[in-house]
Amino acid sequence: MRTIHYKIKRFDGKREWYQDYQLQYEKGKTILWALTAIREQLDPTLVFTSACRHAICGSCAIKVNGKSFLACKTSLDEVLETFKSDYLVFEPLSNFEVIKDLAIAWEPKMEKMKQVKPWLIPSNKGSVERGFIQSEDDFHEISSPTDCILCGVCTSECNQLAVNDGTYLDPFILNRAYRFSVDSRDCAPEEHIRPVYENELWKCIHCMQCISSCPKGIPLTDEIAYLRQESIKMGEVNNQGAKHAFAFYDDVRNKGRLNETMLPIKTDGLLKTATTKIPFALRMIKKGKINPFHMPKAIEGIKGVKEIYKYAEEVKHS
Amino acid sequence: MRYAFFPGCTLESAAEELMISTMKVAEALGIELIELKGWTCCGASHIQDIDDFLATSINARNIALGEKLGVSKIITVCNTCTLMLRTAKAKLDKNKKLRTRVNESLRSTGMQYKGNVEVTHLLWALIEDYGLDRLKEKVKRPLTGLKVANFYGCHILMPPKIMGFENHMNPQSMEMIAEVLGAESVKFDQRLACCGFHAVFPAEKEVMNLTGMNCLSPKASGADCLITPCPLCQMQLDAYQPDAQKGFSKDITMPVLHLPQLIGLALGFSPQELAIQRHVVDAIPVLTENVLV
Ligand code: FES
């Protein structure tokens, strides 16, 4: 008989410990099945949350061997195959406050979410009497972001939140801001986007964890790119993130390639670069990593690249 | 074996040692790398934040340069370059309307995106095209006793829909290569962590914290050095290490090598031939102690 070994992180409000459990292997089960079986057969004191068992309520997400999953949607066989091990460690999601064992606190996150006004700010094109008709295309703009079930997997996997002081908005909050800002019935996209911008939007590291782990396949990183584009359109260009992106954008148009020597100056300005990046630059030069006098020449075919930029400008304004 | 080679911007400046070591290793293995003429920066995961259509267009041009060479694959040695090129390709292959528009944009260059070359990374190509057995035969100096910590970096694994070479939650390709070279892979918590490079300007404090953790974790596992398939991870972990150290009381010192440098050592090249002396954190002492006897 094959035995699966579970090590579960426990927390009683004060004390933390790991507890071992064992269950006979059964084929075709889910992570949530294992949790339920442990509670019913081995330890009634184990706390975890779940309700719908159909990937709708979003309450059952936990970490298994360091990765976050929706417990009711995730096959145990798949997880055993992924980690090539019969030893699984269950822990509560990261970047959340833990209430007890695997149960996490959502209230602080909901408070945080309010900042982006996660509700429709209706335009006067619709009303209670007339209704609020949306075209099929317009509906498709919001259909994917509306799939979010607030399970918290994206938050748990977010590399910025792991080191952030809590200001940076959780990916599911960014998704809410996106969802309402692109809704054809909403008349104030800026009211959703400005708080996003003001809460460290440019600190996303592009690690791709959120888009890779979302159980609903929501294209979160594309949404973040959109929110950044919109913040630029709102005039928010005087920040390190936007300036850094523009350094790449401009270098490709002018020469085709990045000028690494000038990058810090374009991002931080001469003064800040001079005061903060000098030791870095000196050690790079000393090791022969940066030649401050190397200025990339324009690439072969730069004319065509400039035409591509022109075309993209036209597309933007069409 | 022939590939169209997309070096990417760092190989021309801050990671020239990766260019040097990649060329040495490719030659020794009999892999022909034909550099794309007139390649541009891939956008480095930044240009789409200004204009995503443009980001796709410039990479359609980069891929079209490879298509002209009549090879079946474009190869890179950078995680982010691989992801940017593959993202553009995935979009263009899926969305006909977008492809038509992008090709309209490429008209002035006299090129067209056809979609008939693949985009790969040296790490993948060694396993799926070259073969580990063949690589093993080429090993002249097995790296016996060298304990390596394989740091994958995010962009060679995710999003799996676009990358998908192996399971992003538990990849094994780096360990497979290390094993063939005779090195021992250590287990460490930050194996699949993010290096933070793409936000080192707007999130400096947070990223330095990440860098420190990424060095301490392999150190605690007894690693002699960290190995990465990405020059951006390498730069973040090596060149910024003295800055990251300031936030930690414990010594975080951890040498960081590019994957081709590790391979090159096993193929018998000296650290100097692979330009290992260029790293900010000196890797040569641990190599001398362990493999260069
Ligand atoms: S129990 Fe409702 S989503 Fe899993």
UniProtKB/TrEMBL annotation, chain A:
<keyword id="KW-0408">Iron</keyword>
<dbReference type="InterPro" id="IPR025192">
    <property type="entry name" value="Succ_DH/fum_Rdtase_N"/>
</dbReference>
<keyword id="KW-0001">2Fe-2S</keyword>
<dbReference type="InterPro" id="IPR004489">
    <property type="entry name" value="Succ_DH/fum_Rdtase_Fe-S"/>
</dbReference>
<dbReference type="GO" id="GO:0009055">
    <property type="term" value="F:electron transfer activity"/>
</dbReference>
<keyword id="KW-0004">4Fe-4S</keyword>
<dbReference type="Pfam" id="PF13085">
    <property type="entry name" value="Fer2_3"/>
</dbReference>
<dbReference type="InterPro" id="IPR017900">
    <property type="entry name" value="4Fe4S_Fe_S_CS"/>
</dbReference>
<keyword id="KW-0816">Tricarboxylic acid cycle</keyword>
<comment type="pathway">
    <text>Carbohydrate metabolism; tricarboxylic acid cycle.</text>
</comment>
<dbReference type="GO" id="GO:0046872">
    <property type="term" value="F:metal ion binding"/>
</dbReference>
<keyword id="KW-0560">Oxidoreductase</keyword>
<dbReference type="Pfam" id="PF13183">
    <property type="entry name" value="Fer4_8"/>
</dbReference>
<dbReference type="InterPro" id="IPR009051">
    <property type="entry name" value="Helical_ferredxn"/>
</dbReference>
<keyword id="KW-0003">3Fe-4S</keyword>
<dbReference type="InterPro" id="IPR001041">
    <property type="entry name" value="2Fe-2S_ferredoxin-type"/>
</dbReference>
<dbReference type="GO" id="GO:0022904">
    <property type="term" value="P:respiratory electron transport chain"/>
</dbReference>
<dbReference type="GO" id="GO:0051538">
    <property type="term" value="F:3 iron, 4 sulfur cluster binding"/>
</dbReference>
<feature type="domain" description="4Fe-4S ferredoxin-type">
    <location>
        <begin position="193"/>
        <end position="224"/>
    </location>
</feature>
<dbReference type="InterPro" id="IPR017896">
    <property type="entry name" value="4Fe4S_Fe-S-bd"/>
</dbReference>
<dbReference type="InterPro" id="IPR050573">
    <property type="entry name" value="SDH/FRD_Iron-Sulfur"/>
</dbReference>
<dbReference type="GO" id="GO:0051537">
    <property type="term" value="F:2 iron, 2 sulfur cluster binding"/>
</dbReference>
UniProtKB/TrEMBL annotation, chain B:
<dbReference type="GO" id="GO:0016491">
    <property type="term" value="F:oxidoreductase activity"/>
</dbReference>
<dbReference type="InterPro" id="IPR004017">
    <property type="entry name" value="Cys_rich_dom"/>
</dbReference>
<keyword id="KW-0560">Oxidoreductase</keyword>
<feature type="domain" description="Cysteine-rich">
    <location>
        <begin position="148"/>
        <end position="238"/>
    </location>
</feature>
<feature type="domain" description="Cysteine-rich">
    <location>
        <begin position="3"/>
        <end position="86"/>
    </location>
</feature>
<protein>
    <submittedName>
        <fullName>Heterodisulfide reductase subunit B</fullName>
    </submittedName>
</protein>
<dbReference type="Pfam" id="PF02754">
    <property type="entry name" value="CCG"/>
</dbReference>
<dbReference type="InterPro" id="IPR051278">
    <property type="entry name" value="HdrB/HdrD_reductase"/>
</dbReference>
